[in-house]
Amino acid sequence: MSFSTKKTQYRPDLDEFITQCELNYALIQRLLPDWLSFVLGASSNDAIKDIEWVAQNELLRLSLKVIDIATYTTTAKLSIRSNVLKDKLASGNAHQLDVIVRLYHDARMMEVMEGSGPGALKAAYPSTDNERAVDEKQQINRFIGESLKVCIYSKVEQLEKNNG
User: In this predicted model, what pLDDT tens digit does every residue of 112-136 receive, in sequence order?
Assistant: First the structure.
């Protein structure tokens, strides 16, 4: 009798990934419909680069700031801050997540491009990389979706746009 100790290689679930990206786009459209209309109607990057859109409640503060606009895509910085954890955590910015997202308007999808560290996120990392989860990109996409749902389904106290 022989036992195989060979590990199976992680393979991202593409259907799950695409579904999550589509869901995130729909959620951002529902949470900030004025932002999406504003972005789609903008004629240049300069017109909207300095505007930060904020949705906030007692649990979360979510902000979006446009980095770049192209014909079918918008790249933005998405910041999610936990108002609840802010006072409970002693360590710096552990209560905040800053990511770069890309919205594909023709496909109606929103994908995480860069996480808190430098460089673009890969679809999967080797299991030997101790600093990252094998499916980190998928986990961050899921977390963004859950955060957007929290903002939508709990009372949003403030919905505004800030210049600068």
Answer: 887 765 454 554 445 555 555 557 7
> Tokens representing 92?
């710096």
- CB count in 10 Å sphere of residue 24: 24
Tell me the pLDDT tens digit for each residue of 19-34: 999 999 999 998 888 7
Query: Dihedral sign, CA of 150, 152, 155, 157?
Result: positive
Answer yes or no: are the C-beta atoms of 43 and 55 closer than 8 Å.
Answer: no
* Residue 78 per-residue DSSP state: E
Predicted TM-score (pTM) of this structure: 0.77
Question: Cβ distance 83 to 61 under 8 Å?
Answer: yes
d(CA 61, CA 4): 48
